[in-house]
Amino acid sequence: MIYRAGNFIEATEDTPYLQIGEHKYGKPILDRAITFGTVMEDAIKIGLISMDSTMRSNLGVGMPIDLITVRRDEVKHDIHYRIEPGEPYYHDLRERWSAALRKAHQNIPRPPYGG
């Protein structure tokens, strides 16, 4: 990403992704799951999970989701896809992620504090 002043931001091993726009709800997912070595297909999946979390917590963010991937040192995109409401993969991802979160929280013991 290049700013007007001419300085730029790039992904590095210390900062493996750049997020533009609303970030407070989905960013923790990216911070926990994305590494510099994450393969593109997994990065897309994690990014969509992050978007789902943002949409569930912020009514100002919603469908459609425009997905585009551009590999380093390329000038053309690999993937350009618009995810509309009801799109089968995204719907399945949302349902599986919600179920996985419920199961994870149920499998963690309750805190030993108080009553």
TrEMBL record:
Protein name (record): Uncharacterized protein
Species of origin: Methylobrevis pamukkalensis
